[in-house]
Write a structure and sequence with these properties.
The protein has 299 residues and is of the alpha+beta class. It has two domains: 181 residues, Endonuclease I-creI, CATH 3.10.28.10; 79 residues, no CATH class. 57% of the residues lie in helices and 16% in strands. It has eleven helices and eight strands. The strands form two sheets. A four-stranded antiparallel sheet has the order 1-2-4-3. Helix 2 crosses helix 3, helix 8 crosses helix 9 and helix 9 packs across helix 11. The relative contact order is 0.09.
Length: 299
């Protein structure tokens, strides 16, 4: 089962304690993937279609729990696609309460977001990427949902895809918060565990890459220093060098790969890292002047 499927299985078993929350959740479900109709006598009918059985079961239970009216459910199988569609139908004047549900309390907002996700939401496999989205058919509904997510501190955005309005989140921490808002603790813990493992792996990789880069930098600098020193030795020799430069030149040839700190510690008397770096830089400058065929060069 996909991660989205696991979340919907969990949310399908979550029922609010208050009727106004049930109305909010039903309102979101039917706004996302349902249809309202109303005859001339004011009798309202609701239709809902889904391929997800837990979602169909949740919708059926909410209808019965909230209104205690007869709700029909029809199962249609598509042999070509190998899929099953669940169609729910309810009729009654009291169903207008779903259409005109007021979503103001925090608990109702949680229920509304939960219903919207059940009807038209998905989350990518967190082992691959972080992406949470809810598909809305109308721009107004998408803005309403985005505003509701923002009330929980979630920075939701909207993009248009194939004529639909997609309300989405891209950051792992934001998706964790969204699962908390919808009251899916099981999925939240699973996502957090994946995030912890990924962050630890990324941290280790960053450290390894940093250490590798530092090693390459040290080795590259040591090779360049050795080449400069050998060039001085092979052209004018070390006798014309000041004693301090001559000492560090010989030390670098004796310890070709040593870091500056270790190189300085090998001298007598020992020399600090900055002092070693200063002398090696002076040697490189001398080598550069020699390469430019300048006969007169100052030590």
């Amino acid at each position: 089962m996909s991660f989205s499927g696991e979340i919907k299985e969990e949310l399908a078993l979550k029922y609010a304690k208050a009727r106004h929350c049930d109305l909010a959740e039903l309102s979101a479900i039917f706004s996302a993937c349902g249809e309202f109709t109303e005859d001339r006598h004011g009798i309202c009918a609701l239709r809902f279609k889904t391929e997800n059985f837990p979602v169909a079961r949740k919708c059926f239970t909410l209808m019965k729990k909230t209104f205690n009216i007869k709700t029909d459910i029809v199962i249609r199988r598509n042999s070509q696609k190998g899929s099953v569609n669940y169609l729910l139908y309810g009729k009654g004047e009291e169903l207008l309460a779903v259409k005109h549900a007021m979503v103001q309390a925090v608990c109702c907002k949680r229920a509304y977001i939960r219903g919207a996700f059940l009807a038209a939401g998905s989350v990518s496999d967190p082992k691959k990427s972080y992406h949470f989205e809810i598909v809305c058919g109308l721009a107004g509904h998408a803005e309403y949902l985005r505003h509701m997510l923002k009330s929980f501190g979630l920075d939701a955005k909207i993009v248009i895809r194939k004529g639909n309005y997609i309300v989405y989140l891209k950051e792992g921490a934001q998706i964790v918060d969204a699962l908390n808002v919808m009251e899916a603790p099981g999925a939240l813990m699973e996502l957090e565990n994946v995030r912890i493992v990924k962050e630890m792996r990324n941290s280790v990789n960053r450290k390894v890459n940093c250490e590798t880069a530092n090693i390459k930098k040290i080795v590259s600098a040591a090779v360049r220093q050795r080449e400069d020193i050998e060039y001085i030795r092979d052209t004018v020799g070390f006798d014309r060098l000041p004693e301090g430069l001559k000492t560090i030149a010989l030390a670098r040839l004796d310890y070709p790969d040593a870091p500056l700190k270790e190189l300085g510690a090998a001298l007598e008397p020992p020399l600090g890292k900055s002092g070693v770096n200063h002398r090696l830089r002076k040697l490189s400058e001398i080598a550069d002047r020699l390469r430019e065929h300048k006969e007169a060069w100052q030590l």
